Input
Amino acid sequence: SQTGRTQGGPGSGKGTQCERIVKDYGLTHLSSGDLLRSEVESGSARGKRLKDIMERGELVSLDIVLELIRDAMTNNASSRGFLIDGFPRELEQGVRFEKEVAPCQFVLFFDVSEAVMQQRLLKRGETSGRVDDNEATIKKRFHTFQELTKPVIEHYRQQSKVVQIDASGSVDAVFGQVKSALESRGL
Ligand code: AP5
Ligand code: MG
Output
């Protein structure tokens, strides 16, 4: 089955676009961030440690993320394909996942300025209840993205798997570009 990825900084619109994509293309959306937040909500001791890390805008350990995604894929084994959102966040995560679980066919990279992303996240923070939608954590999430995740995008760019999308426009305008990208890849 197909496995694609979405990449982009915090607030670039990955989750929003994934919701639109799964409606039209029948892929299963798996977000490592969402899986981690449900682990936190479960109230487990591990969840408490995860929450602290997410509150600092850092990455949680590779093994936990790999396990969560692997389990979610097993639970949806009949899916026609997976769209894995905000993943991999660091090079080793990607390398291990491809070796142990599934190769990556394409990466949609939602590119937009930090100013716009910050504005979106602060607005969402008024109601989201997310522990990381505040100015201090947003700054750290930007830093983590630049230092650890940007190199992952470069890695896939060298394999010609990245489709860069201008994510500064409206949700519809961004989705229009997503559709052309997916259709050009035969989806
Ligand atoms: P994660 O949950 O992945 O968060 P993120 O990448 O920081 O980004 P968001 O989910 O906040 O933004 P998004 O790009 O999905 O945008 P959205 O569509 O929501 O990760 C959170 C934390 O978990 C990480 O910091 C890390 O600690 C940990 N983690 C996660 N994955 C991990 C991994 N693989 N390994 C290790 N640790 C991991 O949109 C944002 C807002 O903007 C919304 O309000 C939306 O309505 C609005 N919006 C969207 N598009 C538009 C548009 N075009 N115009 C105007 N508004 C828009
Ligand atoms: Mg998201």
Notes: The pocket of BIS(adenosine)-5'-pentaphosphate (ligand 1) is lined by residues 8, 10-16, 32-33, 36, 53-54, 57-60, 65, 86-89, 93, 120, 124, 132, 141, 170-171, 174 (CB under 6 Å).
